Amino acid sequence: MAEIHWEDPFCGEGNNCFRIGTDAEGNAYIAVAGQEDRPLVDSTDALRALIREIKAGKADHLL
Length: 63
Known about the structure:
Blueprint lengths: L4 E2 L3 E2 L5 E6 L4 E6 L7 E4 H12 L8
Antiparallel strand pairs: 1-3, 2-3, 3-4, 4-5
C-alpha cells in the first residue's frame, strides 16, 4: 500500500471521528480514527465530489 498522508482527525458530536488522507498516486482515503489500516479508497476527485454532496445536504437523510 502507498504511504498515506493523514489529516488530523475530524470529530463530530460524540465520538464520531474520521480521518481523510491522500497519497502521491492521487488516491484519497477515509477511515474511522484509530482504524486507518482499513480505509475506503477512491480518487481525490471522487472524495471531493462526496464532500460537496454532503455539504449540499444530500446525505442528511442518512443521519
